[in-house]
What we know:
Blueprint: E1 3-8, H1 12-24, E2 27-33, H2 39-48, E3 58-61, E4 72-75, H3 91-104, E5 111-114, H4 119-130, E6 137-139, H5 143-157, E7 164-165, E8 168-169, E9 177-178, E10 184-185, E11 188-189, H6 200-209, H7 211-219, H8 224-238, E12 243-252, E13 258-269, E14 272-276, H9 283-301
Parallel strand pairs: 1-2, 1-4, 2-3, 4-5, 5-6
Antiparallel strand pairs: 7-10, 8-9, 10-11, 12-13, 13-14
Amino acid sequence: MAARIGIVGMGWVGASVAMSTLHGGFVSELLLNDVTEGLAEGEALDLGQGVSFYPSARVRAASLDEMRDLDAVVIAAGRGGRPGQSRLDLLRDNVGMMRSVARSLRGLRGLMVVVTNPVDVLTQVATEASGLPPERVIGTGTMLDTARLRQILGRELHIEARSIHAQVVGEHGDSEVVLWSGARAGGVGLRRWPGWSPEREQVLGDEVRTAAQEIIKRKGATNHAIGLVTAALLRWSLRGEGRVLTVSRVQTGACGIEGLALSLPAIVNRDGAVTVLEPDMDEGERAGLNASAEVLRRAHASIAE
């Protein structure tokens, strides 16, 4: 069934989400919104004129009020990162916007997908401000970090990235945790892979962690990969595929974490991130996850109303 989807925020990321979503072929109508006058209308005209080159869909500008009856609304509004900034540095700039948008979308029928950074804290803010159940407010979280990890490991092992099964959990940011102990390649534990050196884990983990900064230094923003990630999350959830994805949501006890948004693997379908899974972790990884949770807890406490 084709879905009706909204995107709030038509900057670099919102435009990439729109393009990837249209090419995904699962949307019948795409509604765009931006606080900058004329921007959503301009993007709608531009994208609409390409309809001959993607599966047929209507694209138009819309108010937030019109988006409450959609299958999903993506929030990509807010200021992006600058060279040298952490994602948490963006928090005070973007929290007011997130509260305002989420409150305007109270009563949303479908899913709310948060992309704006810092995505974990803002996913929690959106959950609180919208009044939606935690499973229906999903942050893209460490889906992109996990994709980066698999791409890097594929490069290292000279195999296709889709043959890698490895995850990043916790914050989408500096305190994120790579679950090296459970990483597998083609069904073989990574630490049993011929020639694998555990010393590489720190180097490769740092490469995943700093990937966004390397892009921002060169082009000013990251947008294409997160656009693909968000479109995939929308497609897999709204088709009810039940994929296991490392998305962020307010946790309700998994891994001992309560009332805090961060990424853990979850089964995602049309009802949201409905079942959170507890991955196997060694002692160091579990300690890292708890430390990541504490970073996010302090960040959220800093913006309490």
